[in-house]
């Protein structure tokens, strides 16, 4: 009898959804690890893209990048994640009248 994960992997592969589900799992586990430090945006070709609210938060994620990559690869039991790309989210809703 085949294990459920093997059957599911075969079905997802036939439907072309393997990379989509892997990306969703990487983002889910990254959010779990990062708590409120960052927001996962996407995962493609081994690169996890995350959004942070400030430069200090970006520095903290950069310092802990190797730990995050190891955590994700261990959680997924595969070497999928190679690196983390950090994007500092700017506040575009700023009211410039308040500056004068």
The separation of the N and C termini measures: 72 Å
H and E string: HHEEHHE
Q: Could you name the CATH topology of the domain at 27-90?
A: GMP Synthetase, Chain A, domain 3
Content of β-strand: 15-25%
CATH superfamily of the domain at 27-90: DnaA, N-terminal domain
- The overall strand count is 3
How many helices?
A: 4
Strand order of the largest sheet: 1-2-3
Main beta sheet, described? 3 strands, mixed
CATH architecture of the domain at 27-90: 2-Layer Sandwich
Mean pLDDT: 82
**Helical content class:** 40-55%
Task: List low-confidence stretches.
Answer: 92-100
Any idea what the shape is? Answer: elongated
Overall radius of gyration? 17 Å
- Strand-pairing-aware structural class: alpha+beta
CATH class of the domain at 27-90: Alpha Beta
3D architecture notes:
There is one protein chain. The chain has 100 residues and is of the alpha+beta class. It has a domain at 27-90: DnaA, N-terminal domain (GMP Synthetase, Chain A, domain 3, 2-Layer Sandwich), CATH 3.30.300.180. The chain is 50% helix and 18% strand. It has 4 helices and 3 strands; from the N terminus they run ααββααβ. The chain has helices spanning 4-15, 18-34, 55-63, 65-76, and strands at 39-44, 47-52, 83-88. It has a 3-stranded mixed sheet. A hairpin with a 2-residue loop joins strand 1 and strand 2 (47-52). Helix 2 crosses helix 4. The longest helix has 17 residues, at 18-34. The N and C termini lie far apart (72 Å). Residues 92-100 have low confidence and may be disordered.
């Amino acid at each position: 009898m085949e294990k459920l994960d093997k059957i599911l992997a075969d079905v997802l592969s036939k439907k072309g959804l393997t990379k989509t589900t892997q990306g969703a799992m990487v983002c889910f586990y990254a959010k779990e690890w990062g708590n409120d430090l960052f927001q996962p945006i996407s995962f493609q070709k081994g690169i996890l893209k995350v959004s942070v609210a400030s430069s200090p938060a970006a520095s903290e994620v950069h310092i802990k990048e190797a730990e995050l990559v190891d955590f994700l690869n261990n959680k997924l039991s595969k070497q999928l994640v190679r690196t983390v790309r950090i994007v500092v989210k700017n506040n575009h809703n700023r009211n410039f009248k308040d500056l004068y």
